[in-house]
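Human: For the file, kindly provide a plain-text protein record giving the amino acid sequence and the backbone structure tokens, at your earliest convenience.
Assistant:
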Amino acid sequence: MRTTLRRVQANADEPHRVVIIGSGFAGLFAARRLARAPVSVTVVDQTMHHLFQPLLYQVATGILSEGEIAPATRDVLRRQANASVILGRVTGIDLEARTVTSRAIDRELVTSYDSLIVAAGAGSSYFGHDEFATHAPGLKTVDDALELRGRIFGAFEMAEIENDPQARPAWLSFVIVGAGATGVEMAGQIAELAHKTLRSDFRHINPADARILLVDAGPRVLPQFDERLSHKAADHLRQIGVEIHLNVRVTGVDQSGIDLVTEDAEHQRIEARTKVWAAGVQASSLGALLADAAGVPLDRGGRVPVMPNCSLSGRPEVFVVGDMMSLRDLPGVAEVALQSGRHAAGEIERRLAGGTAPAPFRYRDLGMLASISKNFAVAELGPIRIWGLAGWLLWLFVHLTFLTGFKNRISTLFHWAVSFIGRGRAERTTTVRESLVPVPGDDQLHRG
């Protein structure tokens, strides 16, 4: 079934039509910026929630629920009268006709636009080895976090019932590939889970026997941070029981383990049932579709080159923002997405007000933070370097501020109190489909 949501502007009184693809930081803040503008905003999204991606690892390790970091987009925009939301996966963008085609189950919709903001984000990159994804999920979506939660908690359950002492260590081994912020935070939380949260929950295993291994092809953890902070983070990870393996390259991932090659060409095999991929980022496949239509090349990360004001070359009405844009080597972080989304919306407002000269996007770097464990985080704010408890308190404040909605902040604060003041994890529930137990009638095991 094909439904066309297409309006022809019959007169000057009809509002300017803005279509925004994606409701992450870039898409949502673009929509909000246009709340008082003389436009109609249509947000097209395949997930229908605004995801606070930096806290996904806390969903995967049982600290927060998915609803606390991913409120419904409709709820967030419910008071914005000029905004509407459409469920659908975008399958086509016609730059000549100025339409966006999306699909939801068997329903195809065509939405016309006068201005388009493409903010579809990014996913995990396996550097040409997409087969690794089956056994080493990434951490970019709520689905990823829930799957990993099932795998992590399920691994301890399987170790509890494993009668073969030779097989049990593999269930209690957790490998995180990639030592950037996501990998470091994930490793730290699994270590706390094993050494503190679960220490009294089992009768036949000691969760503290778990091995948590952080592997990376680079020479240090948190390479985007100041070197001193990188060393502080590495020292703390080792203190809480994380094994760090640097200058190693992943050559194979299967159900029972992972294969590595060191810088000396030495091959290593690690038997581990649970693997997490946090090593690379690839822009949404919409980038390739858009670049092909516009006749521009993608960069190595699949991102679309844009003009200084975030617009597509030769298409001033089309903006590519956030993790999808390639501009001055800006990092793929939430703050870049947020600011570029707002800038694109501001460009639309300026044009409608009669402005003709495009304003270049100027990114304001507010710094970087990474929380490694309870009471320890690192923060880089311009020339300021903070670590330990002070860094962790700053991390708490910043992340609480950026969460969307008062209710989410209160709920998150409560769960942080449970996890950080005590040792509990309020969100340890996994469904049958998220566990290691196959669903009756399923001919495919849901988890690796």
Summary: The CA atoms of residues 379 and 394 lie 8 Å apart. The domain at 130-279+374-421 is CATH 3.50.50.100 (FAD/NAD(P)-binding domain).
